[in-house]
């Protein structure tokens, strides 16, 4: 059983339908959807996490990165191109639109279009684009039109007064399917790992020590964002996406490095990239490079080797946190 941040007809609903067309449960907030996963009411929930124009969705990343909530894990990501229509009840004309309702992110992405075509209209920001379409479908709502996804307009019997009105025609929203912790799916070679790093001390070089764990191992970060820990003013953690998979030795080694220097590290999953973009792995950072270096050290009599993914060597007693290699 799956769930999603609703209501029906949102871009989140559209993202979920690309994964499964089975009946799913909508939730009124991101937190409610994720808590339903924790309570085992549903198996997984689709929630928004990032928009190419407006940035990260704080409700999602703060919930997933909280030290106080039971852990969850990203299983899959979905990218949805953002397309907005200005929808109204049948019979409404553009010059009759005086009050528009939409979601805050949608309002930001059509601001220029509205300023040009409806400069006198009042824009009210609430809930979701689907809820906006539902409100406009009620003649007594006081709203003349909604900026919403085409699917929402059709769902609530509205007609488009204008289509594809987003200011940025390349806008994309990223969604993630979140479930309970478990072994990540096998590496594909085009993967992403999401995690949250909590600094041990707020001191000069604290962030640098975190970034070095990735840099010296050839792991590229495709997103990094500081977020307040909600404890004291000025206390931050770092939510980030790294190119690669837990089964890549360079990523596993970076995670172990973080665990050594950070107060805490929350692993939020390794999963296939929706855009299938391959990482640019520098010389010396491939799994085969790590295995060759480990074999060389072992030949010298070294006994502090942590086995690379897929290695048959067992020169120490530490458990290998990874499995088979995804690149060579």
TrEMBL record:
Residues carrying the site annotation Essential for prephenate dehydratase activity: 173
Residue span, Prephenate dehydratase domain: 1-180
Pfam family, one: PDT
Keyword Transferase carried by entry: no
Residue span(s) of domain ACT: 195-273
Record field: catalytic activity: prephenate + H(+) = 3-phenylpyruvate + CO2 + H2O
Residue numbers spanned by region Disordered: 308-328
Source organism, top-level taxon: Bacteria
Keywords carried by this UniProt record: Amino-acid biosynthesis, Aromatic amino acid biosynthesis, Lyase, Phenylalanine biosynthesis
Amino acid composition bias (Polar residues), ranges on this chain: 309-328
Entry EC no(s): 4.2.1.51
Gene3D superfamilies linked to this entry: 3.30.70.260, Periplasmic binding protein-like II (3.40.190.10)
Keyword Amino-acid biosynthesis tagged: yes
One example of a Gene Ontology biological process annotation: L-phenylalanine biosynthetic process
Protein name: Prephenate dehydratase
């Amino acid at each position: 059983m799956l769930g999603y941040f609703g209501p029906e007809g949102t871009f989140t609903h559209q993202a979920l339908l690309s994964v499964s067309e089975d009946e799913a449960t909508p939730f009124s907030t991101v937190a409610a959807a994720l808590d339903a996963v924790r309570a085992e009411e549903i198996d997984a929930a689709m929630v928004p996490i990032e928009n190419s124009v407006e940035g990260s969705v704080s409700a999602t990343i703060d919930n997933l990165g909280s030290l106080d909530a039971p852990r969850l894990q990203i299983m899959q990501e979905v990218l949805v191109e953002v397309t907005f229509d200005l929808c109204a009840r049948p019979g409404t004309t553009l010059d009759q639109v005086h009050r528009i309702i939409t979601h805050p992110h949608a309002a930001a992405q059509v601001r220029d279009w509205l300023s040009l075509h409806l400069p006198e209209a009042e824009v009210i920001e609430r809930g979701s684009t689907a809820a906006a379409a539902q409100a406009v479908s009620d003649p007594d709502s006081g709203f003349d039109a909604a900026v919403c996804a085409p699917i929402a307009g059709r769902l609530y019997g509205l007609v488009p007064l204008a289509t594809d009105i987003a200011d940025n025609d390349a806008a994309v929203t990223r969604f993630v399917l979140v479930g309970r912790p478990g072994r990540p799916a096998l590496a594909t070679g085009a993967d992403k790992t999401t995690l949250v790093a909590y600094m041990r001390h707020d001191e000069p070089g604290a962030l640098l020590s975190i970034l070095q764990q990735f840099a010296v191992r050839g792991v590229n970060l495709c997103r990094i964002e500081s977020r307040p820990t909600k404890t004291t003013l000025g206390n931050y953690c770092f939510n980030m996406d790294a190119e690669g998979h837990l089964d890549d030795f360079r990523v596993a080694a970076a995670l172990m490095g973080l665990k050594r220097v950070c107060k805490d590290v929350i692993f939020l999953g390794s999963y296939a990239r929706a855009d299938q973009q391959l990482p640019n792995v520098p010389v010396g950072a491939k799994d085969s490079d790590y295995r060759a270096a480990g074999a060389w050290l072992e030949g010298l009599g070294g006994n502090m080797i942590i086995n690379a993914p897929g290695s048959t060597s067992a020169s120490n007693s530490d458990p290998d946190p990874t499995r088979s290699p995804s690149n060579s």
